[in-house]
């Protein structure tokens, strides 16, 4: 696959064009589905880019919308062809959040709030291994290794010398104090986090406990923005069995405003570095806590 062809983003752009053609024709998704003898849900999935689309689908839809300009049809057909190619992540087999990886791979910027763990793009390999193992206690070792390798591969966006991802991360204090793996591992992770925060395209802020209630208390979310003006921003909310992608302008705007409040409430960049350094020192000097009902003798 050519490096500049992202199948996830191609599907999304193609879906937006098909929706525009349908609305221009004044038809509902239900009416189109009836004409093509398919389900309305298929039309909706094609338009939101969550389903791969064949050149035949494009041909049939262009027929319904009476698109006469052959250049438009050919362009859409090529987008459909590109969208069926595989991204780098497909080499790792079935990845449950492959749609998100595709979006992240093509994004120009990412704003993320993490209340529980260090953001995946900033995790050390040892921390990632411990997080994934803890989250998937019944997964075989091969599955754990695959997910760790995918997470490590995603971090290429941060280290890309030509087009690095602009990352802004607000991390809750709890994520930094939670002992994942071991205290030694946490010291190394915090040191890596501080180091990353010095990169010109990475901003890390900490939300301390003493700040109290804030707009991120509903949980993790991320806002992805893209280099092409035609690609609308996406809000990503991770779920246990399924993920949520919000693309409506009102939804994106609401989460954007929430994130601006988060950034304003969190510690400043330099304050955050000093705060992370203190937490690393706490981890280095702390004895393992006595657990309730656990006798050390």
Which secondary structure elements does this structure contain, and how are they paired or packed?
Elements: H1 7-25, H2 29-36, H3 40-47, H4 55-64, H5 70-83, H6 98-106, E1 109-114, H7 125-135, H8 141-154, H9 156-159, E2 166-172, H10 173-177, H11 183-196, E3 202-207, E4 221-225, E5 234-237, E6 244-246, H12 249-265, H13 269-285
Parallel strand pairs: 1-2, 2-3
Antiparallel strand pairs: 1-4, 4-5, 5-6
Give a description of the structure:
The protein is an alpha/beta fold. It is 51% helix and 10% strand. It has helices at 7-25, 29-36, 40-47, 55-64, 70-83, 98-106, 125-135, 141-154, 156-159, 173-177, 183-196, 249-265, 269-285; strands at residues 109-114, 166-172, 202-207, 221-225, 234-237, 244-246. Strands 3-2-1-4-5-6 form a six-stranded mixed β-sheet, with helices on both faces. β4 and β5 (234-237) form a beta hairpin. It starts with 6 loop residues before the first helix and ends in a 12-residue tail after the last helix. The mean pLDDT is 87. InterPro entries: Cro/C1-type_HTH, DUF5753, Lambda_DNA-bd_dom_sf. One of its GO terms (molecular function) is DNA binding. It comes from Streptomyces roseolilacinus. Residues 18-72 form the HTH cro/C1-type domain.
